[in-house]
TrEMBL record:
Keyword Signal listed: no
Coiled coil: none
Annotated protein name in UniProt: Uncharacterized protein
This protein's UniProt keywords: GTP-binding, Nucleotide-binding
Organism encoding this protein: Orchesella dallaii
The keyword GTP-binding is annotated on this UniProt entry: yes
SMART domains noted in UniProt: RAB (SM00175), RAS (SM00173), RHO (SM00174)
Length: 385
């Protein structure tokens, strides 16, 4: 999930930090502490969580930066989409748990290669963080105080050795349980921000290639067979997708994409809905929808009629306030070969009649007007805010 993001000021430098590591290593606990969010009492797997906040550079200074902080999932289920958060990162925070040896080993085997491959290369700094969930964890090692101290020393030595091997910029140990170590968590965040800022200053490119960040949630609707999935794949090109876990096959996919346009980094989530009937209940589960897309096939009059009547009526009964709607006529590559074709004028008339935000025709197969879809979504969002 992505939280709604506060826009950054153009007068302040923007830096981006991303937390990575195996599942259940305490990344989200650190993330929640970093942003002063109440700590979760139960473990909830994260897909993506992004927050923007203003922080100081160095302790006690008046210089500030806008921090875009990303929390990512460590699950292998999300291996295909997690790397889309890595470009433009200014500092990574790699976490492992002292109670999970595999998470320690995966720092070098899995996480470092991944951020080096999909991030901006070895010039991006990274911090190594060893986590434990409470002081009670040590009772699993032994009750003897000397044994506890020996264990702590061993943990520190192993962490420092790993930091040296992977050439991390810093190493910290931090409790992330109910008694989270506030002092060390704050030190970790401060170090990450400082390293990210230094990295920005050393870049040859302009200091603010990205001025702000915005999450963008889009819901794509239309009858089966109109080419919704093909449209998403054409928009995202080589970006891989992740199937959502929903009942009755009412949602086919949640698709994630990260792109920059006019100085803003957008994190786009497009959720596809197939059936007209479940829209009422499904839309209640989505928070902060920014743009709705209604899609029909230009060679299928029934799908056009369904958009004009069934889908539109269902939306009116499903949402408490009007949301901007983009009307898309897909499959323009079939115009010459189809016996029946919905004229462009009909789409324009429907847009005006229903007061939709925009109308466009495109082809997922030939890529006609595909690049314009993202631009139109961003433009509609900008007009609505």
């Amino acid at each position: 999930m992505c939280d709604d993001i506060t826009e950054n000021s153009v007068d302040v430098q923007t830096v981006k930090c991303v937390l990575v590591g195996d599942s259940q290593t305490g990344k989200t606990r650190l993330f929640e502490r970093f942003i002063n969010r109440p700590l979760s009492s139960i473990y909830i797997p994260t897909v993506f969580d992004v927050v923007s906040k203003e922080v100081e550079i160095g302790v006690g200074t008046k210089n500030k930066v806008n921090l875009n902080l990303w929390d990512s999932s460590g699950s292998h289920v999300y291996d295909s989409i997690r790397p889309i958060s890595y470009p433009h990162t200014d500092c990574f925070i790699i976490c492992y748990s002292v109670n999970d040896k595999s998470s320690f080993e995966n720092v070098e085997k899995r996480w470092l290669p991944e951020i080096l491959k999909y991030g901006d290369g070895p010039r991006v700094p990274y911090i190594l963080v060893s986590t434990h969930f409470s002081q009670d964890d040590k009772s699993e090692i032994g009750n003897d105080k000397k044994e506890d101290k020996d264990h702590e020393l061993l943990v520190a030595v192993e962490g420092e050795r790993l930091r040296s091997e992977i050439q991390a910029n810093a190493f910290y140990q931090c409790a992330v349980g109910p008694d989270i170590d506030v002092q060390y968590s704050d030190m970790i965040l401060q170090k990450a921000v400082d390293l990210a800022y230094i990295k920005k200053l050393e870049e040859e490119k302009p200091p603010n290639p990205v001025w702000k960040f915005q999450s963008l949630n889009v819901v794509l609707m239309g009858d089966k067979g109109v080419g919704k999935s093909s449209l998403v794949q054409a928009c995202f090109k080589d970006q891989l997708q992740i199937a959502s876990n929903c009942n009755d096959n009412t949602i086919s996919d949640e698709n994630y994409h990260n792109f920059i346009m006019d100085g803003t980094e957008y994190f786009l989530r497009i959720t596809e809905i197939h059936e007209v009937q479940p829209v009422n209940s499904l839309l209640e589960k989505f928070d902060q929808i920014h743009v709705l897309i209604l899609c029909y096939a230009i060679n299928d009059p029934f799908s056009f009629q369904s958009v004009a009547v069934d889908w539109h009526r269902n939306l009116n009964n499903s949402i408490s306030k009007p949301l901007p709607i983009l009307l898309i006529g897909n499959k323009t590559d079939l115009k010459e070969d189809s016996l029946v074709v919905i004229p462009s004028e009909d789409g324009e008339e429907l847009m005006l009649e229903k007061k939709f935000a925009a109308f466009m025709e495109c082809s997922a197969k030939s890529s006609e007007n595909i690049a314009q879809i993202l631009k139109t979504i961003v433009a509609i969002f900008g007009e609505d805010t």
